[in-house]
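Practice record 12: protein with iron/sulfur cluster.
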Amino acid sequence: MSTDSDDSPVGRRAIAAGNASAAIERPRVRPAAGHGLGSRPLPPLSLYVHVPWCVRKCPYCDFNSHQAVGELPEDDYLAALQADLEQALPLIWGRQVISVFIGGGTPSLLSAKAVDTMLTSFRACLNLLPDAEVTLEANPGTAEAGRFLDYAASGVTRLSLGVQSFNDQALQALGRIHDARQARAAIDMAQKAVDHVNLDLMYALPGQTLEGCREDLQAAMSFQTGHLSLYHLTLEPNTVFAKYPPPLPDDDLAAAMHEYIIEATAAQGWQQYEVSAYARPGHRCLHNQNYWTFGDYLGLGPGAHGKLSFHDRILRQARHRNPQSWIERSLRRDGSQIAEERTLVPQELPFEFMLNALRLRDGVDAGLFTAHTGLGITAILPVLKSLEERGLLSLQAGRLRATDLGWRYLNDVMEEFLD
Ligand code: SF4
């Protein structure tokens, strides 16, 4: 559902923690010893849950999403999720969980009972904070008022709607299952159910004009939800659009749309706090902020990614992507649902940290680098100084922040930390 994309130098993804991979390739693993946080407190922990099914596959989508055939195997999925969680417990024992993100795929295909079972189990097995942010991604084509209210009654505090556009032609070109009327109705239902609603919207759509982009954005802002995620449609490998590209706006027009978005959102009091994320005060997404600041997250479900810190190492995990294979493996309870697991080496940590931290408009407290990587800031001081001298990075008031120039060339700035 999260189609998070942008055409900034950063690349296209600002996905929910745990869902798929980032736009920039990570450095190859080097054969060196691992590195942990020593005696420092462990960073905040979030939970990502992947629901892999959709009504049908959108032609631009490269997420781990699969067209549902017949009834969803909800019982098997929930049993496998429970088994996946229980096998992960020794890795996170005693830690507080600050947020849950149920992403996909289309999690709103799950019944209210399934979401309730899931959240009840998380509360029983985890130290989930009473005021934890709990987001569920929903497709307007699967929205039901009663179901949204039930999700909220079970503990969902935030709904993220994959609206993408309010233009029926554009929605058809994107292969979406909903139309503009359904999108408006879903927003209304979501706002009645929870206080925090995000709308995903894309621009630079097939055949879109600047006026069309303006109409979409103004429509999205008119609902006064707390959060907007505004992404540039990009052609991803192994998608239908990559094979049969639709007519897309050229780079100049797409840049004009991006500029318009930045100006129009600012004019109406929206804060762009990350490359693709805009919020009104009090509505920033806690879960994604934890991810962007190199916090920890456990990823459960097919294809989910996780990152977990320990005193002696920082671990990345990825689950098997195929839903049936993940279900079968998870139920075996032998750890075989985990397809990849590796310890990050110290050389990787600066890039891993900066990859997302620099996407934040206000940057991060410099102390967070040490708190979340276990490395002293001296490890990257020469790079920081060099970037500062070139006007790409600001180090004022103890914060690391890309300057306006650095923001324009964010990929290049991040790559400086690769070595
Ligand atoms: S609804 Fe479309 S874009 Fe969203 S995950 Fe499913 S296939 Fe991908």
